[in-house]
Specification:
Layout lengths: L4 E2 L4 E5 L6 H8 L6 E2 L3 E2 L14 E2 L2 H9 L3 E7 L2 E6 H9 L4 E4 L2 H8 L4 H6 E7 L3 H11 L4 H15 L7 E4 L3 H16 L6 E2 L5
GO molecular function: ATP binding; GMP kinase activity
Organism: Methylacidiphilum fumariolicum (strain SolV)
Catalytic activity: GMP + ATP = GDP + ADP
Protein backbone atom coordinates (compact mmCIF):
# COMPACT_ATOMS: atom_id res chain seq x y z
CA UNK A 1 0.00 0.00 0.00
CA UNK A 2 1.25 3.47 -0.90
CA UNK A 3 2.23 5.49 2.16
CA UNK A 4 1.01 9.08 1.80
CA UNK A 5 1.83 10.36 5.29
CA UNK A 6 4.64 10.25 7.79
CA UNK A 7 4.70 11.44 11.38
CA UNK A 8 7.14 11.85 14.25
CA UNK A 9 6.69 9.64 17.28
CA UNK A 10 4.32 10.35 20.15
CA UNK A 11 5.60 10.55 23.72
CA UNK A 12 3.00 8.89 25.95
CA UNK A 13 3.67 9.84 29.59
CA UNK A 14 1.79 7.98 32.31
CA UNK A 15 1.84 9.40 35.85
CA UNK A 16 0.00 8.49 39.03
CA UNK A 17 0.35 8.40 42.80
CA UNK A 18 2.32 5.44 44.11
CA UNK A 19 0.06 2.40 44.19
CA UNK A 20 -2.52 3.69 41.70
CA UNK A 21 -1.69 0.98 39.15
CA UNK A 22 0.63 2.93 36.86
CA UNK A 23 3.45 0.38 36.83
CA UNK A 24 1.04 -2.55 36.33
CA UNK A 25 -0.58 -0.74 33.40
CA UNK A 26 2.80 -0.02 31.85
CA UNK A 27 3.91 -3.63 32.32
CA UNK A 28 0.91 -4.78 30.29
CA UNK A 29 1.43 -2.09 27.66
CA UNK A 30 5.06 -3.17 27.24
CA UNK A 31 3.81 -6.39 25.65
CA UNK A 32 2.52 -4.34 22.72
CA UNK A 33 4.74 -3.84 19.64
CA UNK A 34 3.13 -0.42 19.10
CA UNK A 35 5.81 1.55 20.95
CA UNK A 36 9.02 1.26 22.92
CA UNK A 37 9.13 1.52 26.68
CA UNK A 38 11.74 3.95 27.95
CA UNK A 39 13.47 2.37 30.94
CA UNK A 40 14.09 4.89 33.71
CA UNK A 41 17.12 5.13 35.95
CA UNK A 42 16.67 5.05 39.71
CA UNK A 43 18.70 4.93 42.90
CA UNK A 44 16.06 3.00 44.85
CA UNK A 45 16.72 -0.68 45.64
CA UNK A 46 15.08 -3.25 43.33
CA UNK A 47 11.79 -4.74 44.50
CA UNK A 48 11.22 -8.48 44.43
CA UNK A 49 11.11 -9.69 40.84
CA UNK A 50 12.52 -6.51 39.29
CA UNK A 51 15.36 -6.93 36.80
CA UNK A 52 18.09 -4.40 36.10
CA UNK A 53 17.84 -3.19 32.50
CA UNK A 54 14.25 -4.39 32.14
CA UNK A 55 12.29 -2.65 34.88
CA UNK A 56 14.82 0.08 35.73
CA UNK A 57 18.49 0.84 35.42
CA UNK A 58 19.46 0.63 39.09
CA UNK A 59 22.23 3.13 39.81
CA UNK A 60 24.14 4.27 42.85
CA UNK A 61 23.50 7.87 43.86
CA UNK A 62 27.00 8.77 42.65
CA UNK A 63 26.32 7.25 39.21
CA UNK A 64 22.99 9.04 38.94
CA UNK A 65 24.46 12.43 39.88
CA UNK A 66 27.24 11.98 37.34
CA UNK A 67 24.64 11.48 34.58
CA UNK A 68 22.69 14.44 35.89
CA UNK A 69 25.79 16.63 35.81
CA UNK A 70 26.43 15.50 32.22
CA UNK A 71 22.85 16.56 31.30
CA UNK A 72 21.96 13.05 30.15
CA UNK A 73 18.42 13.16 31.56
CA UNK A 74 15.28 14.31 29.80
CA UNK A 75 13.66 14.71 33.22
CA UNK A 76 14.56 13.77 36.77
CA UNK A 77 13.07 13.94 40.24
CA UNK A 78 13.69 12.88 43.79
CA UNK A 79 10.70 10.89 45.05
CA UNK A 80 10.42 9.36 48.52
CA UNK A 81 14.15 9.81 49.04
CA UNK A 82 15.31 8.22 45.79
CA UNK A 83 16.32 9.71 42.43
CA UNK A 84 14.53 8.82 39.18
CA UNK A 85 15.39 9.97 35.67
CA UNK A 86 14.72 9.33 31.97
CA UNK A 87 17.69 9.14 29.61
CA UNK A 88 17.40 11.78 26.89
CA UNK A 89 19.08 10.04 23.95
CA UNK A 90 16.77 7.02 23.75
CA UNK A 91 13.58 9.11 23.72
CA UNK A 92 14.70 11.81 21.27
CA UNK A 93 16.11 9.33 18.73
CA UNK A 94 12.94 7.21 18.81
CA UNK A 95 10.64 10.21 18.32
CA UNK A 96 12.66 11.49 15.36
CA UNK A 97 12.40 8.05 13.76
CA UNK A 98 8.61 8.04 14.07
CA UNK A 99 8.52 5.55 16.95
CA UNK A 100 6.08 6.08 19.81
CA UNK A 101 7.58 6.04 23.30
CA UNK A 102 5.96 5.14 26.64
CA UNK A 103 7.23 6.75 29.86
CA UNK A 104 6.27 5.67 33.37
CA UNK A 105 7.24 8.72 35.47
CA UNK A 106 6.05 10.74 38.45
CA UNK A 107 4.16 14.04 38.31
CA UNK A 108 7.36 16.07 38.79
CA UNK A 109 8.94 14.51 35.72
CA UNK A 110 5.77 14.96 33.67
CA UNK A 111 5.74 18.66 34.55
CA UNK A 112 9.39 19.07 33.48
CA UNK A 113 8.65 17.59 30.05
CA UNK A 114 5.48 19.71 29.75
CA UNK A 115 7.57 22.83 30.38
CA UNK A 116 10.33 21.86 27.96
CA UNK A 117 11.42 24.39 25.33
CA UNK A 118 12.16 21.59 22.85
CA UNK A 119 9.48 21.77 20.11
CA UNK A 120 9.86 18.06 19.35
CA UNK A 121 8.96 17.14 22.93
CA UNK A 122 6.17 19.70 23.23
CA UNK A 123 4.51 18.47 20.03
CA UNK A 124 5.00 14.79 20.88
CA UNK A 125 3.79 14.89 24.48
CA UNK A 126 0.56 13.14 25.48
CA UNK A 127 0.41 13.04 29.28
CA UNK A 128 -2.06 10.78 31.08
CA UNK A 129 -2.84 10.80 34.80
CA UNK A 130 -4.11 7.61 36.48
CA UNK A 131 -6.50 8.60 39.25
CA UNK A 132 -7.21 6.00 41.95
CA UNK A 133 -10.96 5.50 42.52
CA UNK A 134 -10.65 6.46 46.22
CA UNK A 135 -7.88 7.10 48.73
CA UNK A 136 -9.08 4.02 50.61
CA UNK A 137 -8.59 1.86 47.52
CA UNK A 138 -5.14 3.36 47.04
CA UNK A 139 -4.23 2.44 50.62
CA UNK A 140 -5.55 -1.09 50.06
CA UNK A 141 -3.37 -1.49 46.95
CA UNK A 142 -0.28 -0.19 48.76
CA UNK A 143 -0.85 -2.55 51.68
CA UNK A 144 -1.33 -5.46 49.29
CA UNK A 145 2.03 -4.63 47.71
CA UNK A 146 3.64 -5.10 51.11
CA UNK A 147 6.82 -3.13 50.41
CA UNK A 148 6.36 -0.23 52.87
CA UNK A 149 6.45 0.15 56.63
CA UNK A 150 3.55 1.92 58.36
CA UNK A 151 5.61 5.11 58.44
CA UNK A 152 6.48 4.85 54.74
CA UNK A 153 2.85 4.08 53.93
CA UNK A 154 1.69 7.23 55.71
CA UNK A 155 4.25 9.31 53.77
CA UNK A 156 3.12 7.84 50.44
CA UNK A 157 -0.56 8.46 51.19
CA UNK A 158 0.17 12.05 52.17
CA UNK A 159 2.13 12.56 48.93
CA UNK A 160 -0.65 10.87 46.95
CA UNK A 161 -3.23 13.38 48.19
CA UNK A 162 -1.04 16.22 46.91
CA UNK A 163 -0.31 14.51 43.58
CA UNK A 164 -4.01 13.83 42.98
CA UNK A 165 -4.63 17.58 43.06
CA UNK A 166 -2.47 17.94 39.93
CA UNK A 167 -4.73 15.96 37.59
CA UNK A 168 -5.95 19.11 35.74
CA UNK A 169 -2.39 19.66 34.44
CA UNK A 170 -2.64 16.50 32.32
CA UNK A 171 -4.21 16.21 28.89
CA UNK A 172 -6.07 13.03 29.89
CA UNK A 173 -7.17 11.51 33.19
CA UNK A 174 -8.15 7.86 33.59
CA UNK A 175 -10.19 6.92 36.64
CA UNK A 176 -8.60 3.60 37.51
CA UNK A 177 -10.80 0.52 37.59
CA UNK A 178 -9.77 -3.02 36.69
CA UNK A 179 -6.61 -3.59 34.68
CA UNK A 180 -8.68 -4.48 31.60
CA UNK A 181 -10.67 -1.24 31.93
CA UNK A 182 -7.52 0.87 32.30
CA UNK A 183 -5.94 -0.78 29.25
CA UNK A 184 -9.06 -0.18 27.16
CA UNK A 185 -9.18 3.50 28.15
CA UNK A 186 -5.49 4.06 27.42
CA UNK A 187 -5.67 2.33 24.04
CA UNK A 188 -8.59 4.59 23.09
CA UNK A 189 -6.39 7.62 23.86
CA UNK A 190 -3.52 6.10 21.90
CA UNK A 191 -5.65 5.47 18.80
CA UNK A 192 -7.16 8.97 18.86
CA UNK A 193 -3.79 10.69 19.19
CA UNK A 194 -2.29 8.73 16.30
CA UNK A 195 -4.99 9.94 13.90
CA UNK A 196 -4.72 13.65 14.70
CA UNK A 197 -4.21 15.54 11.45
CA UNK A 198 -1.64 17.88 13.02
CA UNK A 199 0.69 14.92 13.62
CA UNK A 200 0.76 13.96 9.94
CA UNK A 201 2.99 15.30 7.17
CA UNK A 202 1.91 14.65 3.60
CA UNK A 203 4.64 12.96 1.57
CA UNK A 204 2.69 12.27 -1.59
CA UNK A 205 -0.81 13.47 -2.40
CA UNK A 206 -3.25 10.58 -3.03
CA UNK A 207 -5.33 12.80 -5.35
Amino acid sequence: MQKFFRREGILFVISAPSGAGKSTLCTNLRKSPDFIFSISCTTRPPRVGEVNGEDYFFLTEEEFLQKLSAQEFLEHAKVHGHYYGTLKSTVIDALKNGTDVLLDIDVQGARQIRQSNDPLLRNALVDVFIMPPTIEELERRLRKRGTETEEELAIRLKAAREEMKLWPEFKYTILSGSMEEDLTKFRAIMRAERYLSRRLTLIEAPF
